Automatic annotation (TrEMBL):
InterPro entries: Homeodomain-like_sf (IPR009057), HTH_TetR (IPR001647), Tet_transcr_reg_TetR-rel_C_sf (IPR036271), TetR_C (IPR011075). Residues 48-67 bind DNA. The keyword Transcription regulation applies. This is TetR/AcrR family transcriptional regulator. Residues 25-85 form the HTH tetR-type domain. Keywords: DNA-binding, Transcription, Transcription regulation. Residues 1-21 have a biased composition (Low complexity). Residues 1-24 are annotated as: Disordered. It comes from Streptacidiphilus cavernicola. SUPFAM superfamilies: Homeodomain-like, Tetracyclin repressor-like, C-terminal domain.
Amino acid sequence: MPTPARTAATPASPAATPRLTSKGRATRERIVAAAAGLMFENGVAGTSIEDVQLAAGVSTSQVYHYFGDKKALVKAVIAYQSDTVVGAQEPLLGKLDSVAGLRAWSDAIVRLQRSRQCQGGCPIGSLGSELAEIDDEARVDVAAGFSRWEQGIRSGLHAMHDRGELRRDVDPEALALATLAALQGGLLLTQIRRDTVALEAAMGAMIDHIASLVVAVPA
């Protein structure tokens, strides 16, 4: 006898997620933005649902209406920070196909850290360092955010490689990952030291290394 077909709508399927009105979307986005700000300043453990409710100007029942529990809210915050951090850089990430473009991107990140008085570190990295060992699903979500960031770097380096501007034996994938690692290490030390010296040194050394791999393009 054939197995009866499962119903199309399951808790994990898109069909089971109710469509939000424009007002509902605005309320949900306000809650996520408030939670992201609080978690960036105070950490995930230091942010309660009540804190978020007060900061967003909504009721506790509204928070639980859009997010069944704190874990679901944290997941939304990770997505929000990934969109915010990487999205804000996309105009520069689209120009990382030259050493000049890499330096302009690095300089913009340094200026941003100075404007923040070197506080807070990386919004995505801060979430990852707090959650990686206690919430594997959150760790995967943070890794996806970093992958999106790395992809922007990788695309520029691949373009340079495809045009023959980088040595043929260079691996753009490894260079992109190393660049992101240098950035994250520099941001962490910037947060701890309250200056951008380490960030400038790490990014400067990495971009100088990439510059050393550039070759003249045949006419």
